[in-house]
Design a protein that fits this description.
Chain A is of the alpha+beta class and 111 residues long. Chain A has 6 helices and 3 strands. In chain A, strands 1-3-2 form a 3-stranded antiparallel β-sheet. In chain A, helix 2 packs across helix 4. Chain A binds a DNA duplex (30 and 30 nucleotides) through helix 4.
Chain lengths: 111, 111
DNA sequence: CAGATATATAAGCCGTGACTTATATATTAA
DNA sequence: TTAATATATAAGTCACGGCTTATATATCTG
């Protein structure tokens, strides 16, 4: 449990634009240009956010001609899960709520 | 799923000192002065971090004479859990890993 | 009440990081 | 090869937030 490493991870997710980009990508693979069209910032700014997300293993990319297609990597969320699990160990009574919450999501219709 | 609200939450946890203070408190109720002794920053800085954590419902406090004792509120982590659960819905195959990880923690000796 | 102790709030400084524009690199098309 | 398109990198600007010191507030003690 390295606190400052986790803090960096949280900080990385702590930018609204970057988080929104990740959220968008979680709905499906997208090219940089298409992404840039969805946000009120320049293409270089989008590329910079993608670069950060990629450094942390939250996204990966694939070239197709001149386009780069980015997609999310669910394993990238492991630090978050680990961090949460750590505190769940201190508060076992909360574990059940989390479990049931996740079961709900699992059974809910996929949007 | 309000992205910018979640981003603010991540940003709030994204400071290493603030996260370390939360981590320390998760081990047990502590007074402000005692906390300040554990970190290389001034007492006002500690109070400011505690103020932010309190605004987000991650800690609560209780007065005892001149001292203020702070303790964590596990419910404060709900935004994080909700955010994760949202993505788990997109990646159900990852749900099992999380569950088993948490079960491990649950059975591991409490440190 | 006066002084000491514990914490909170105010004001100001300063580094970090998210953005911009300009430019470099890679790929395709003519 | 030259031009056009898609993305990445570089350099510079600026706002935000975490820190400091100074001071206000609350509680206890003599």
């Amino acid at each position: 449990m390295n606190v400052s490493h986790h803090a960096e991870f949280f900080q990385m997710l702590g930018d609204p634009t970057r988080l929104a980009i990740f959220d968008h990508l979680s709905r499906g693979e997208t090219s940089v240009g298409e992404l840039a069209g969805h946000f009120p910032i320049s293409q270089p700014a989008v590329s910079q956010h993608l670069g950060v997300l990629r450094e942390w293993g939250l996204v990966e990319r694939r070239r197709e001609g001149r386009n780069m297609y980015y997609r999310t990597r669910s394993e990238g969320l492991a630090p978050l899960i680990d961090w949460l699990a750590h505190y769940q160990a201190f508060w076992p009574e909360k574990l059940d709520r989390l479990k049931s919450l996740m079961k709900e999501m699992h059974h809910a219709p996929r949007k």
